[in-house]
Specification:
Elements lengths: L15 H9 L5 H18 L4 H20 L4 H4 L1 H24 L5 H16 L8 H22 L13 H13 L2 H6 L90 H18 L4 H17 L4
Helix pairs in contact: 1-2, 2-3, 5-6, 5-10, 6-7, 7-8, 10-11
């Protein structure tokens, strides 16, 4: 369901891009739309919850989220944090791989910039579920830098250099930080209404293809021919980077302007007599393994599904998560 929200006030400019991404996905992927707006709301409550203009927008977001959660109560990626995280990670990674493959093939354009930029913002949204792993942080940094770098090159009539920068790691990090910090023009180009600009999201061709299985480490490439992944690097593997403690909260009623989180964490129970007694953290971990297995099957990744189910079974039977 599309959201008819009040205008975004100047004080909440920082959340405008997440709201625009949500609007672009209202019809394409309601799960992405939902969590982008939730992230925007949580950011907005931290930035400005006192001005009248901000209150109008934030209240509108709360109402929309409440309605959507009731409407999509049968969608596990809305009601369950682990399923939601898996959905967003998979979508962001697929978008990231598309953008990187186009970049490494020197197919520069606004759609590639937009894909990198959107992937970077979706990695931001993943912080809703806890701290990001080092691999995800690196992917986020790379995506945002690439979006800013290609955008600035096109704007200045220059030809971008495909792939990651060459040179020592310190100089590369400095260049990345400099490009991202100077990307206000990029953000302005994306600030218009969805679908009204050449910078709007265009679904890439082949975007519905399955995500290839990923390795466990991020390795910036030197050449694209020495890796099975489009773009020349190995992205993180969600199965090796499970989230930390889920956030607490409830959506039983519209919250006041203090905090907002629609998910409530479950209470673990000990195992039956004769089995290993599990604490709440172990129960949650076993649930996560099962969810990751289900997510892997969505992309026909049977080996990853089997591995996660075996880990869940071992944990439930023995309490061992080694």
């Amino acid at each position: 369901m599309s959201a008819q929200l009040p205008p975004c006030p100047a004080s909440l400019k920082a959340i405008q891009h997440y709201l625009k991404t949500a609007s672009e996905h209202d019809q394409r992927d309601p799960v992405i739309s939902y969590w982008c707006r939730l992230y925007a709301l949580q950011m907005g409550l931290k930035i400005d919850r006192k001005s009248d203009e901000a209150k109008v927008l934030l209240t509108g977001l709360m109402d929309w989220l409440e309605t959507q959660k009731r409407t999509m109560a049968d969608n596990e990626a809305i009601t369950n944090e682990v399923a939601a995280q898996a959905h967003i990670e998979n979508y962001a990674l697929k978008l990231f791989l598309y953008a990187d493959s186009q970049d490494r093939a020197a197919n520069f354009g606004k759609n590639v910039v937009k894909a990198f930029y959107t992937a970077g913002m979706l990695f931001d949204v993943l912080t809703t579920f806890g701290e990001l792993t080092d691999e995800v942080l690196q992917n986020r940094k790379y995506a945002k830098w690439k979006a800013a770098y290609i955008h600035n090159c096109l704007k200045n009539g220059e030809t971008p250099v495909p792939g990651p920068l060459e040179g020592d790691e310190e100089n590369e990090d400095n260049a990345m930080n400099q490009d991202v910090a100077g990307s206000s023009g990029l953000q302005e180009d994306f600030a218009g209404a969805a679908g009204t600009s050449g910078m709007g999201f265009i679904k890439p061709s082949g975007f519905d293809s399955p995500i290839p299985p990923a390795s466990n480490t991020y390795v910036p490439p030197t050449t694209p021919n020495h890796t099975p992944y489009a773009g020349g690097f190995s992205p993180y593997n969600p199965t090796s980077a499970l989230p930390t403690t889920p956030n607490n909260g409830s959506m039983d009623s519209v919250p006041s302007f203090g905090s907002y989180n629609p998910m409530s964490s479950g209470n673990g129970e000990t195992g039956p007599e004769g089995r290993a007694k599990l604490n709440a953290q172990q129960i949650t971990k076993a649930q996560k393994y099962c969810k990751w297995a289900s997510s892997a099957l969505n992309y026909d990744d049977v080996p990853t599904a089997i591995t996660n189910l075996q880990k869940a079974l071992k944990l439930l039977q023995t309490g061992d998560d080694s």
